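RETRY 2/3 - previous attempt timed out on the joint model. Re-submitting the same 443-residue input unchanged.
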Amino acid sequence: MADHMQIIPTKTPEQFKREQFRRHSAVPELWECLDHVTDPEIPVLSLWDIGILKDIKRQGDHATVTITPTYSGCPAMDAISEDIENAFQAIGIKSTKIVTELSPAWTTEWMTEKGRNKLRGYGIAPPNDVVGSDNEITSETQVLCPHCSSSNTHLVSEFGSTACKALFQCDACSEPFDLFKHI
Amino acid sequence: MTQINAKQDLIDYTVRLGDDAIVIGHRVSEWVSKAPFIEEDIALGNVALDFIGHARMYYTYAANVDNTLTGKNDKTEDDFAYLRDERQFQNHLLHELHKGDFAYTTMRQLLVDVYNKYFLEQLKNSNDETLAAIAIKAAKETKYHCRRSKDWTLRLGDGTEDSHQRMQKALDDLWGYSHELFEQDELELRLVEAGIAVDCASLKASWLAEITAIIEQATLTVPTQEWAVRGGRQGYHTEHLGHLLTEMQFVHRSFPGAKW
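RETRY 2/3 succeeded.
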């Protein structure tokens, strides 16, 4: 029977590594606290979901949080740092140091499965909804519409409302939508 | 070379890369609210933001190295962006030229984006870990810039008679500014020797081959007239940079320490 079974991985190896890392953390309560801090541009995604949260360390009532920027010019990073400090202050951590780490560079592979589903529900196509395995966007690229799931879609612009997205339109339901680009 | 001189070289080089990025980033941002249509307005705004992001990474790194050198902790990215005058900026002249029409901006972006693609590919191998990390990050974004510039070049070059003519004129007007991208002075040669800087002269053949292929596919002609303008890396600029800096720096200088 096992011969007929095909294993379909639901997580990328990168996601798996991140989960392992978090599971072995000495401060799970701080990771949970930051599960409520979301990206100001895409409020359905937590910092964990989007994959920019790399490490949390605690020394008494002081914490150090390591994050990595999505796009280098992303204006949300300053707001995110502030939100982290506020969230920690609310649970009694007096000071928080935010460390920005550039390497390894952030990739959409770090986005969680839950995050991808939430994005779709929010009307943004996650990076893995590009039809075919090719991650390059061309004028022929088709993406599953997050509204009606049709692949009958076309690229409108390489950049959507933010640098991390591209603008598409669905030719089946006519709705415009953003694609979170693979990077 | 003493260690202090080596660090100063690294700072100077990193600031140059930041200068290129901030100047073109600001220039592209001038399109916001003026682009031909809204999607393009947003795209140009995002491209500008990417360049400004690259500048912030370079300047922040230069400030950190500077602080270790002086033993103080007072230098920030803002000092490089806002508190230096025209002659202290060492960006390539191509980056500072005026915004021009949409064809001019598109053509400049094509020349710069393809250059950056090859440049960052080399910078990834720098012996300096931070510069290599910045390159890896910036290269990912540059891939999108290249594709967009190429698509627009094909569309406008092989478009209407008017768009074709404007693209050819832009190419002719910009060509002489492209040579400077591949020239090196003593500072860069020292850093190439140390395995830190990119040997930009070595990028010319690949850059020219790719640009030529795109230009020809766009039914345009690579200029044959030989002329070159240079001086950006030595702080000699065109009249365009002063105006750009005035606009970019005046809030910071008029209201020091202002926050919002």
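The mean pLDDT of chain B is 96. Closing ticket.
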